[in-house]
């Protein structure tokens, strides 16, 4: 009995000893492997390069950029953080009442994006354009060198001189166009003008009278709200200067109802890492559209003027407009490669 117990004990000691020796040999081999790999893939190479700003750092410094926008930051802070005013690498060129403000604010959720708060109207305003590119740069927000500055001025899309002027500034710039169903966009355009007139106690024609030529009962193409909705006519002018690959078409109707997929498409177009998530977007039932969540303490909804109630429009006029826009829409789909469920 004693002999069996001693034999069993010797067997256990042998197994434990073998495991211990095996572990030591593994560690020696592993260290040797790490030593051999070190010159090929040093730890430093996996860290951000000195001139790059990690996205987490950009998120933490939003407060500083906010102070800069308010004019509260000092020159020393600007120098210390290597902040600059950059020309935009992407511009939301239109379309008016397509959702340009919503798109800009939503893209600003991304830590690598900095937005110009106001519409600059540099390229569509002769007086501003005559002030030169340095004046334009001075209107841009401060940012880190590896952030993308974006501005939006929807008048750019329909102004004849703008494509050439932007091309002269940057022939490889990325251009964003957000569109809605053309008739809905035209009514929204009218509604904004109508509200402005009413604030000044001025009268304004009904939409039907402006959108239709009463002498011919045909669509009035001289009415600006109608002309703006002929997207293909304006896009063709831009394509004389920029290839179609430099444009990204955003579905403005979908941005209202389901914004995240549209924003993810824009992230890819701008070559940005995917950072905007469902956490950043929450539906506000009172306002009837999505609001923005930057972090646990800072939320933001668009101005109360967004989501205006449209006036009722004669259904026959709506039908006539939809039929008028249809062939232009088909051409727009063909050029851009993006199809919408428009009538």
Nutshell version of this structure?
This protein has 343 residues and is an alpha/beta fold. The protein is built from 15 helices and 12 strands.
Keywords:
single chain; 343 residues; alpha/beta; five-stranded parallel beta sheet; 15 helices
Structural overview:
By secondary structure, this protein is an alpha/beta fold. The chain is built from 15 helices and 12 strands. The strands form 4 sheets. The protein has a 5-stranded parallel sheet with strand order 3-5-2-6-9. A hairpin with a 5-residue loop joins β11 and β12. It is globular. The termini are far apart. The N terminus is likely disordered.
Structure classification: alpha/beta
**N- and C-termini, Cα separation:** 95 Å
| Proportion of residues in helical segments | 40-55%
What series of H and E elements makes up the topology? HHHHEEHEHHEEHEHHEEHHEHHEEEH
Q: Give the strand line-up of the largest sheet.
A: 3-5-2-6-9
- What kind of sheet is the major sheet? 5 strands, parallel
Radius of gyration computed on alpha carbons: 29 Å
**Which regions are unreliable across 5 or more consecutive residues at pLDDT < 50?**
2-6, 19-53
Mean pLDDT: 83
- Tertiary shape: globular
Number of helices: 15
How large a portion of the residues is in β-strands, by DSSP E?
Answer: 5-15%
How many individual β-strands? 12
